[in-house]
């Protein structure tokens, strides 16, 4: 993400790409270290909202530009350009039958699956939200997210093909090179050609919004892994919450430096955004099956969880590089971004860890006790004011409750939350946050039976929707369209119209609906702020 953004900024402004690689993560690190997960949530919403608004504006402005002439004009200009695309039915851009598109789509499927499952940011946001909000939210977004590549990609991409060889083109008579295309410079050139310098400035804002929204989540996620899963688990198990948060802040800065350094390394190696698309699933997929088995199969051993991703990564990289050499004659940036080596490498990286995990687990079998997960602690920042609403019936005696494990008193700042949730039937009344010591038989589950049934109900909904979504988006929609057919003018008009409607639906789902859904909480916050200002005044 950093490299792609840096190359786009360089292509549009002339800024040195190394400076862009450093400055882009620097700003993210600063506000993430200061604001933490709360800042990430806020910037995610605001930046995504601005990005979606800019995208629909660019799409409609380009489509209605006098040099394009609307949907019908775009169709006619693409037909007139008569670009022959190898692997497409009759070499046409206006067909869904494309062998290279299928291969690229499969690589994207593996890469996006790895992105969702292996990016801790998605897990953190799920843990920080209520289950009845998480499942519908992710399901809804999985539908509307199609709007961005469908609407913007169709309009901007085809417009680029239509005007690239005409005097309207900003860099006419020069055409985009393969490296420029792979670096994502099609959209900047189209906007500059049709909408002028102001549009490219807006695109810079869009790029900044998209990168900061994504990178801030990544930074928070990695810093949490460093502070909790590494530092507190293995280096200092008795570390206080404040110490863990200090290590987390160090992790934010360290990860920011690593991202900048890694992006600079890839830049000097000649990598592009297209190369990263084929590289990402190979290095991210090996952890998918071990992660799933960690949560779903009690017989996966510690050794299997550690070794199977490493062996899967080695197998995937070996497949990728060896096929690049066999089919390309050498190993370099060009041969390693070919489709088939990247696809086969991703397949091996994805499936081989499952085999390795089962073999290693069965070689020296053991069974994991799921109650170990109940020992996980809640970390709070004592430097920030508590946002928990204390129960009106809390007393001093309530605050000094003893954990079921034996003798560890519950931290005072946690107790109001526990009492309030217990009265709502969400947790067991006698449960404390910290249960790291004592027998597993003495640990009481933090959730009530009612809450567990509630979670299982939403799990069933999520599983059913996953099957339905996969069936529609992978089979029922694309497969019938993979045939000897070139879009007619009327079909193309309907295709683009639905894509635009879908984009507006995405804006409603991502921008408007969250505000409506949280209107009561937002109202409470504003009332509290108003009351505080009145008291101080």
In terms of topology, how is this protein built?
Layout lengths: L1 H12 L3 H47 L6 H12 L17 H20 L1 H8 L3 H14 L2 H17 L14 H5 L3 H10 L1 H39 L5 H29 L3 H12 L3 H9 L5 H27 L4 H4 L2 H25 L32 H4 L15 H9 L25 H28 L1 H4 L7 H29 L1 H18 L1
Helix pairs in contact: 1-2, 1-10, 2-7, 2-10, 2-11, 2-21, 3-7, 3-21, 4-12, 4-16, 5-10, 6-19, 6-21, 7-9, 7-21, 9-10, 10-11, 12-16, 13-14, 13-16, 14-16
What does this molecule look like?
71% of the residues lie in helices and 0% in strands. The chain is globular and about 75 Å long. It has helices at residues 2-13, 17-63, 70-81, 99-118, 120-127, 131-144, 147-163, 178-182, 186-195, 197-235, 241-269, 273-284, 288-296, 302-328, 333-336, 339-363, 396-399, 415-423, 449-476, 478-481, 489-517, 519-536. The model is unreliable at 381-434 (pLDDT under 50). The chain has a domain at 401-434. The protein is built from 22 helices and no strands. It is mainly α. Pfam families: SSF. It is found in: Membrane. This is Urea active transporter.
List keywords for this structure.
mainly alpha, urea transmembrane transporter activity, 537 residues, membrane, single chain, Na/Glc_symporter_sf, 22 helices
